[in-house]
Amino acid sequence: MKNLKKVALGMAVLCCVTAVLFTGCKKGAGSQEGEYPIELTVFTQQSRPQPAADNPAYQYLKDTLNVTFKWDILVGDIAQKRGIMIAGGDYPDIIEINETAFIEAGALIPLEDLIEKHAPSIKAHFGSDWDKLKWEDGHVYYLPNYGIIQGRNQDPEWWGSSMWIQKEVLKDAGYPKVVTMDQYFDLIANYAKKNPMINGQSVIPFTILTYDWRAFCLWNPPNFLAGNSNDGNGVVDPKTFQYKAFFTMDISKRWFKKLNELNSQGLIDRAGFTDNYDQYIAKLSAGRVLGIHDQLWQFQDGNSALRDAGQYNRTMAPVPVVFDANIRPHYRDRPIPNLGRGFSISVKAKDPVRIIKMLEKFLSEEVQRNIEWGIEGKHWQYNAEGIPFRTAEQRANWQNATWQEQNRALLIRDVFPKWEGSFNDGYPTDLSNFFPEREAMVRDEDKELWAAYGVTSNSELLDKDPPPNDPWYPTWNMPNPPDGSPAQIALQRCEQTMKRMLPQIILAPPADFEKLWGDYVAEMNSNQLNVYEAYMQEQLDRRLKEWGIK
Predict the structure, then answer these.
(1) For labeling, which of 100, 223, 445, 549 is most exposed (least CB within 10 Å)?
(2) Which pLDDT tens digit goes with each residue over 433-463?
(3) In whole angstroms, what is the distance from residue 478 CA to residue 232 CA?
């Protein structure tokens, strides 16, 4: 009997040891249930370097989430890369989406059941915006990377579209009120005349980014100059809800006629029409450019380079320029979820459950604070009164672009959903926006600029109190036309026409403008711009219905 008990005890011990060994092999020693070590492959369209092996933010994520990342960073044309991935069915675990093609190709898994079962706090993170994430088949295929505000929005910066002007130009002119397009360009022309050289190079009064998908900088300005909000390629009538593209409207004609006149005066950067993105940023980084139309997230590297080089006076400030003084500017909007863009899990993902559990923990307040503020005790700390602060050295590091790349998980922040606004204790999710820290970091040039215009931030330069967003806003994040559809082909042809003909119109002798503009409008119509408009109207009507607006 004793022998039988010994045998039974031995078998039980053997089973336990076997189970432990099996569990250890699968999940890693010391890991919690479902958190075994895993390397996740991620495709991103962000223009960033590969993270360094000793990056403390990624080491923190490895220690906290038991996960490492292998990045496939886009090089070259996104449409070509996306087409190759879809044709081969070869996908990484996680895909950063910026359009509908991966959804339409069946490359992504639905997330709603996965989240409901394994990570319910993710749904809570999106709150009332959750239903807006649903695709037309009712599934949720992605999670937005930006625009989900927790608590109060405390970001004083403006990251969106604007006319931008070098701060030194405003200072040189005595900080005048800049309202109209003509006033804006007069300031630039006067400064360029007085300062033909900057840092040993010829001044560039106004340049335009026309490279690849970033060419919206070429055709978007007239929409804002007319006082419209950012509804992408079109304008929505608030009474009839009719959608019309503005590419051939009179407001666009007025803008390009102005550019044509400016070119005849030598104020347009002719080389800009053949520059690539890196060349555009290089010109801004040199402090030579006096004015642009762009979105800050797209040219921030230029501002950062000037800041790090001690030429902060040559960084850009947004100005609410419109065609005429009786138009109210509408550049600044209220925060919105970045619909149609962000984090998705592919059908080839190794372990979707592991990924979604990782994401839930990533979205915890503790992890988010370490990602957004940096590592406690290393990049910030609490004082004796329990108030967070940074030292002068830490603040200088936080404002240095190279240091940021080497010490923060910037690719993760670009792709993954995140906390924005406030943490539960009321502190801003960006410690730099906490008032004592912000005051310690604000540069003299900005203090002088803001004081001259009676504001406290760049966003207030555009509007201290922006009006509520239109209920459908914005149409730029509605689904793009499916690849190969008549609407997609029409839009593609229109974009090709705009990239080819609009620079020609700008660079032509003023006497030729009317004829060239007529040719341009005729070609845009022959491209079936109306087919694209009809598609967008369908999408708008669907949104109006689904969001309970109409």
Answers:
(1) 549
(2) 999 999 999 999 999 999 999 999 999 999 9
(3) 10
Alpha-carbon distance 405 to 52, whole Å?
8
398 close to 373: Cβ distance less than 8 angstroms: no
CA distances from 83 to 89, 97, 318, 349, 480 (A): 10, 13, 37, 19, 16
Mean pLDDT to the nearest integer, 246-267: 98
The token duo for 229 is 């909000």
Consecutive H or E run containing 71: strand 67-73
pLDDT at 129 over 60: yes
Q: Are 272 and 207 in contact (CB under 8 A)?
A: yes
Phi, psi at 396, each rounded to 5°: -60, -40
Ranges of CATH 3.40.190.10 domains, the chain: 38-151+338-429, 161-331+442-546
| Structure tokens, 82 | 């996306």
317 in the Ramachandran plot: left (φ > 0), alpha (ψ -120 to 50) or beta? Answer: beta
Residue 31 CB burial class (10 angstroms; 0-12, 13-18, ≥19)? middle
Could you tell me if 189 and 456 are in contact, meaning their C-beta atoms sit under 8 angstroms apart?
no
Per-residue pLDDT band at 33 (split at 50, 70, 90):
low
More confident residue, 26 or 264: 264
Contact present, 111 and 141 (Cβ < 8 Å): yes
| Cα gap 368→418, rounded to integer Å | 7
Q: Is 506 within 8 Å of 270 (Cβ atoms)?
A: no
Helix H or strand E encompassing 375: none
38-151+338-429 is classed CATH 3.40.190.10: yes
- Say which amino acid occupies 204: I
* Assigned token pair, 298: 């797209």
pLDDT at 34: 59
pLDDT (mean) for 197-219:
97
φ/ψ of 164, rounded to 5, equals -120, 145
Q: Distance (Å, rounded) from C-alpha 11 to C-alpha 29?
A: 23
Mean pLDDT, the chain, as a whole number?
92
Q: What tens digit of pLDDT does each residue of 260-310 get?
A: 999 999 999 999 999 999 999 999 999 999 999 999 999 999 999 999 999
| Alpha carbons 301 and 404: distance in angstroms, whole number | 12
Alpha helices in 384-477 (DSSP H): 392-398, 401-407, 410-415, 435-441, 444-453, 458-462
108 closest CA partner among 144, 141, 154: 141
Q: What is the CA radius of gyration of the chain?
A: 26
> How open is the CA angle 484-487-493, to the nearest 5 degrees?
80
Q: What is the pLDDT of residue 47?
A: 86
Query: Using one digit for the tens of pLDDT, what is the confidence trace for 338-380?
Result: 999 999 999 999 999 999 999 999 999 999 999 999 999 999 9
Q: Per-residue b/e over 212-251, b at no fewer than 16 CB within 10 Å?
A: eebbbbbbbbbbbbbbbbbbbbbbbeeeebebbbbbbbeb
Residue 18 has pLDDT above 70, yes or no: no
CA gap 22, 195 in Å, rounded: 73
Q: Does 131 have pLDDT greater than 80?
A: yes
